[in-house]
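Posting here for the record, re: flavin-adenine dinucleotide.
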Amino acid sequence: MKNVDLVIIGGGSAGLAASVGAFDSGIKDILIIERNPFLGGILNQCIHNGFGLSEFKEELTGPEFASRFEKQVEDRKIPYVLNTTVTSITKDKVVTYTNEKEGVVEVQAKAIIMAAGCYERNAGAIGIPGDRPAGVITAGQAQLFLNEYGYMVGKKVFILGSGDIGLIMARRLTLEGAKVLGVAELCAWSNGLNRNMVQCLYDYDIPLYLSHTVTRVIGKGRVEAIEISQVDERMNPIHGTEKRFDVDTLVLSIGLVPNNNLLTDLGVEVGRSRGAAVNQNYETSIEGIFSCGNVLHVHDLVDYVVDEAREAGRSAARYLLEGKKETSKNIPVNPGEGIGYVVPSKLDVLSLKEKTAFKFRVRKPSKNVFIDYIVDGVTVKSTFKPVIIPSEMEVFNLPKNLLENAQQSIVISMRAKE
Amino acid sequence: MEHDLICIVCPRGCHLHVDENLKVTGNFCPRGEAYGKQEVTNPTRVVTSTVKINGSDLAMCPVKTFSPIPKGKIFDVMASINKVEIDAPVHIGDVIIHDVCGTGVDIVATRDMERI
Ligand SMILES: Cc1cc2nc3c(=O)[nH]c(=O)nc-3n(C[C@H](O)[C@H](O)[C@H](O)COP(=O)(O)OP(=O)(O)OC[C@H]3O[C@@H](n4cnc5c(N)ncnc54)[C@H](O)[C@@H]3O)c2cc1C
Ligand code: SF4
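Prediction output follows.
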């Protein structure tokens, strides 16, 4: 069996940044395993601009951002294999992969970084009533077909879900000559960034139907029409509010889920983000197995992904160079009132650095609130937020002296200003 | 002309009102004022798209306008982009169309694509 110090699963922006973090911390024996015929992951299909404002201080497109990281990997001569899929890993860190040239191969790793990205929720996940014709496609699939292979998915399109990928595709399909008749969103608010609302919908007069969902798909063989309805506060369709749109394609932008199966198969603990439960070193419940990027929690900005992944790479290097820690003391980090999830979901208070980054999302848009950081029931820090929205991940750093004496729990919670 | 806009400079998303004398109200901070004025006098956008590429492993090569172009020219620029076909290899920053639609802005490639 081949031996490698560090195996990285996935060669997207997370895997590449993790490899750079580990390499620069002294680990040279690395293997990145990537399923696609190229590095860079999902960014290659995100041809719009707006990436890299915090990482490179310029506004790049997705492929440009990816190529900067590919270059960092090439410059360091970090080894990678393409067209290769990891099929399983074991607790003892044996990684099995397959490709056409080598067949099935087992590699004994000393540490593993999981960086396999996320997948899109599809029609099956929401059970839309009606026919099951062709022409229902997820936004990411539509993006891949159009931007890499040059296939238009339809001429008259309706989009369900106002997440950023849906908004970006509304503009992209319009520019390529399709008619986008509207976007329906179940929530009473948009789940995309304001700038995408303006640049992708308002610029092209595409209507947004808030508190609406698709209640019927109509068509034999191919989509012919869809019907949307308004929903009440409990998200149930309101009878009599149906509207029909004659379209040939329904694009779904209804959420992303960490592609964490290889780790759940192993029985690693799972966090509220549906990725692995990790401590601040991005280490999972199995020693020496780390996780970062969209497979840990879904990010909206790649700039945060590469920051997190580099840190995971440095942690893996520390683990490899310093060996097993004799002691650790994990304190749970819990989402409180109004908070969806927090990463990390636990804190090893014996390996704290000067600052620890907490990343979280609120459950719904709110104005004039305080975010409280509560250690063992005592609020150690509060920050005021004039506006906070679920589609933007929040990051806040707490210094070591506020955390090191934690015994029971750390809670992040939202509170309205009186 | 009076305008009601949403400021896109930060997530707060202030609702701006710009009157005929270019006076901006509704902005929480000065950046909103600058945005409001620019948006009603000369709104601009970066356009990103793809062009057909021959001799590469993928069918399409992503491209962008090197800098923002006037919003009113977006569809003219798209029409020019859709007429072009290129041959691999191309590299990031290669000029695909010079001075597109008289805007003074070049269309450049945004992905390295080798010949196979
Ligand atoms: C459709 C879509 C659009 C997005 N648009 C934007 C945007 O506009 N702006 C922005 O900042 N962010 C955007 N994001 C967020 C984006 O995902 C992150 O910015 C970042 O690129 C995620 O990087 P990653 O490495 O975690 O995941 P990915 O880039 O998805 O990389 C994961 C890699 O792992 C590989 N892989 C998975 N399983 C295996 C396996 N078993 N064996 C081997 N390899 C495997 C995959 O092939 C893939 O290359 C978008 C995300 C999606 C899904
Ligand atoms: S006016 Fe200022 S605070 Fe308001 S959205 Fe624009 S940049 Fe943000």
